[in-house]
Write a structure and sequence with these properties.
- About 70% of the residues lie in helices and about 0% in strands.
- The protein is mostly helical.
- It has two domains: about 500 residues, Sodium/glucose cotransporter, CATH 1.20.1730.10; about 50 residues.
- It starts with 13 loop residues before the first helix and ends with a helix.
């Protein structure tokens, strides 16, 4: 590998194009099967939940695949390369999120069996709360949707002509759209394909990169460059990869995504029992942790490969987001075809992610905007056709934005921030209703409004701080002293002596203003503000209608407190606790005797 000049572009060879064609053919076959041959489910429940009799294995792999977006496959290794392995703490976050989902949120939605998760907010609070939450969800997803295929578009531009990369991104969106039209079963099938391709596409480059150096040597280089960060308790709130930032911010985002988002609930409700849904959660937790560890290893391999000559500082790439494709480009010199395998995995992951978003957005749009205006006697087949039409319209919107927009970098950052703001607010709303029995509509609406104002203010302030340089993302030391070496082995053998200590290279800035808080804290701030405002406001505006409410809208822990409460009336106690069987039989016997006497007379 020569670092002194720009790496020449390596385009797809015949074998890679054939492999890409096979993967696209498999996706098209799945689309045709679930849209033409297997049209067993022509109802809303069948379209959204796959008949609610799907297997644990299929749903578990689909849940794992929902975490494996192109942003994850390309972004996590770059974070490890720039800032070290503190991202590993996200595994702890995922374990906590899985436990909370299984214990608090899943029992509520599995009992209620709602077509739209936002229907819960109407049952618990009011129609206005449901409408506001649904609008927030749809707007955030429509902003995020064009960003998902834009990331692989940048990767495809490095291995194909620019026009071919744009065409490939549009093909990805088209495949995802018709996969969404096929319903949840088609999405789950794509998810299974995505999982296996992502596993191979992440593990294979990591293993091949370690062949020239070995795991021990890679570990030594990462340790010398201070990339092995097991616990970073940095109190600087602008540091978005500290232990607390990674655990708090990622836990909030994942809790919304795993426990309450429409796409995740569709998969968890697709299995017949809650025990099977919990098994799916546990398996998916293990699978996602495995994929995160592989991404961390890939990031360490990236650093060991480029430790002496950073591609951005040496002018080989324009930004660090191109680091993984550049690494694969260099690796393809020794192992032809590896670049194609990884980018094909990105294509599959993008297709599955877009299909899941389109399907969930269409379901929410139908349930919230169209069904309330439809006649009561509308057939399920007509409803299903309308939902499929909505999938096509949403997919056309995404393809149009991808084709017409030349640069989406700025929109990518803004869309991610808006998604974080809405995720925190919506998680706070649902948590307020599920956990706090005294919460009412006034508390929910006031908490939602003030949370949006606070988080929006923080997001706009953070964007301005980034533009002015008041907020910067500090990374570890990067060097160019190894550039220009004759070959990789020589550069690699001298890498340790050329790396200065990273401790002395990190400038620090004091906390200058509230806007220097990393925007990754926005979801956490949203949840806390909803709860801190919603709960007191509910108590100030009066007691909620808990006495006349279905107890299934509360989590099991809250229900246990309601059962023990001495303030509940005998009528409510009878609603919650099942009546004695003997008393029921005696009452029925007396009623039958009375009826017999009336007939005899």
């Amino acid at each position: 590998m020569k670092n002194s000049t720009l790496a020449s572009p390596i385009y797809f060879n015949v074998a890679e194009y054939c492999l890409f064609g096979i993967i696209v053919g498999v996706i098209v076959a799945i689309i045709l099967y679930f849209n033409v041959i297997n049209r067993k489910y022509s109802t809303v429940a069948g379209f959204l939940f796959g008949g609610k009799n799907m297997s644990i294995f299929n749903i578990s792999l689909a849940l794992i695949a929902s975490h494996l977006t192109s942003i994850t496959l390309l972004g996590v290794p770059v974070e490890i390369y720039l800032r070290g392995t503190q991202y590993w703490a996200s595994a702890l976050s995922l374990i906590l999120v899985t436990f909370l989902t299984a214990v608090i949120y899943l029992p509520v939605f599995h009992k209620l069996q709602l077509s739209s998760s936002f229907e819960y907010l109407e049952i618990r609070f009011s129609t206005h709360t449901r409408t506001i939450a649904a609008v927030l969800f749809v707007v955030s997803k429509l902003m995020l949707l064009p960003i998902v295929p834009y990331v692989p578009l940048l990767a495809f531009r490095l291995v194909t002509e620019p026009l071919a990369g744009r065409v490939t991104a549009v093909i990805c969106v088209v495949c995802a759209t018709f996969t969404a039209v096929g319903g949840l079963q088609a999405i789950v099938s794509i998810g299974m394909l995505t999982f296996f391709l992502s596993l191979v596409g992440t593990a294979l480059p990591t293993g091949l990169a370690l062949l020239p150096m070995g795991f021990k040597r890679m570990w030594e280089i990462a340790s010398h460059g201070e990339r092995l960060v097991l616990y970073d308790p940095d109190p600087e709130l602008a540091h978005h990869t500290s232990f607390f930032a990674v655990t708090l911010a990622i836990s909030t985002n994942w809790l919304w995504k795993v426990a309450l988002s429409q796409s995740s609930l569709q998969k968890l409700l697709a299995v017949p029992t809650i025990s099977k849904a919990r098994i799916c959660l546990a398996i998916s937790c293990i699978g996602v942790i495995l994929m995160k560890l592989l991404s961390c290893l890939l990031g360490l391999a990236l650093y060991a490969w480029f430790a002496g000559c950073d591609p951005l500082m040496s002018g080989q790439i324009k930004r660090h987001e191109q680091l993984v494709p550049q690494f694969l480009n260099s690796l393809s010199v020794m192992f032809p075809g590896i670049c194609g395998i990884f980018i094909i995995a990105i294509f599959s992951a993008t297709t599955g992610c877009i299909a899941s978003i389109i399907n969930s957005v269409s379901g929410v749009l139908f349930e919230e905007c169209i069904r309330p205006w439809m006649p009561q006697n509308t057939s399920e087949l007509s409803c299903c056709k309308i939902m499929k039409l909505l999938c096509i319209l949403v997919g056309a919107y995404c393809a149009g934005v991808v084709w017409c927009s030349k640069e989406l970098d700025r929109l990518q950052h803004v869309a991610s921030g808006v998604t974080g703001v809405t995720a925190g607010t919506l998680l706070g709303l649902f948590t307020l209703g599920i956990v706090f029995s005294r919460a009412n509509c006034s508390g929910a609406l006031s908490g939602c409004l003030l949370s949006l104002l606070l988080c929006g203010w923080l997001l706009i302030g953070a964007e301005n701080a980034l533009a002015t340089g008041a907020l910067t993302f500090q990374g570890k030391h990067l060097a160019t002293t190894g550039c220009g070496k004759a070959n990789f082995t020589h550069a690699f053998s001298n890498i340790s002596s050329s790396l200065p200590s990273a401790v002395n290279q990190l400038p620090t800035k004091p906390l200058q203003s509230l806007f220097r808080i990393s925007f990754t804290y926005c979801p956490f701030a949203g949840v806390i503000s909803v709860l801190l405002i919603g709960v007191p406001m509910s108590y100030l505006t009066g007691k909620s209608r808990t006495d006349s409410m279905n107890p299934d809208v509360f989590c099991p822990l809250t229900q246990s407190f309601l059962h023990k409460s001495p303030m509940r009336s005998p009528t409510i106690s009878l609603e919650v606790c099942p009546p004695d069987t003997q008393e029921v039989y005696e009452a029925l016997d007396e009623a039958l005797k009375h009826l017999k006497e009336v007939i005899d007379r």
